[in-house]
Amino acid sequence: MLDHIGLRTIEPNRMITFYEAALAPLGITKLTGWDGGAGFGRNAPNFWIGGGAVARSARCRSAGP
Fold this sequence. Notes:
single chain, alpha+beta
């Protein structure tokens, strides 16, 4: 059983907008937010989205952006 999960992205606002719409039918809403991030859940945030650097494998880095 997972307690919470977090995703990092270089486009947090776009991802937040997507998950607000995708999770609403499940009764999951954005419960907290800040510049470049948000926490989603029913009673308490347990799905987190944050901005910042996203790690890529060496294979991906060598292929370019």
